[in-house]
């Protein structure tokens, strides 16, 4: 059994309030949870309106399948014009 953790620190340039930030983040998190085999959460900078850290976790029988799911989470972030990834970290358990 392989567990993969993906942490992405991101900047939201167009967010003018925490409400703007939350709408962008919740859209990404909901898509990750509902459409992919991922657990997802905002893990840092909850009270900062232009910065966030998102974490995604996937568990599977092979590293290839887990990495594929985590890369889909990156595609969700990269496909959103309101958010930009600055730091991306993978961890394997």
What are the segments in which pLDDT stays under 50 over at least 5 consecutive residues?
Answer: none
User: CATH fold name, please?
Assistant: Alpha-Beta Plaits
How many independent structural domains? Answer: 1
List the total number of helices: 2
- Kindly state the mean pLDDT as a whole number? 95
Could you say what the CATH architecture is? 2-Layer Sandwich
Question: What's the number of extended β-strand segments?
Answer: 4
The string of secondary-structure elements, in order, is EHEEHE
Biggest beta sheet summary: 4 strands, antiparallel
Give the distance, in angstroms, between the N- and C-terminal Cα atoms. Answer: 9 Å
Helical percentage: 25-40%
Strand proportion, as a percent range, falls in 35-45%
CA gyration radius, whole angstroms: 13 Å
CATH superfamily (homologous) name: TT1725-like
Strand order of the largest sheet: 2-3-1-4
Q: CATH top level? A: Alpha Beta
Secondary structure class reads alpha+beta
Give the overall shape, derived from the CA principal axes.
elongated
Protein name: DUF503 domain-containing protein
InterPro entries: DUF503 (IPR007546), TT1725-like_sf (IPR036746)
């Amino acid at each position: 059994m392989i567990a993969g953790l993906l942490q992405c620190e991101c900047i939201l340039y167009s967010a003018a309030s925490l409400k703007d930030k939350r709408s962008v983040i919740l859209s990404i998190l909901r898509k990750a949870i509902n459409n992919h085999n991922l657990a997802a959460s905002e893990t840092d900078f909850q009270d900062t309106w232009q910065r966030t850290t998102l974490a995604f976790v996937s568990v599977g029988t092979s590293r290839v399948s887990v990495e594929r799911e985590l890369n889909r989470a990156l595609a969700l972030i990269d496909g959103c014009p309101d958010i930009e990834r600055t730091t991306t970290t993978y961890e394997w358990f």
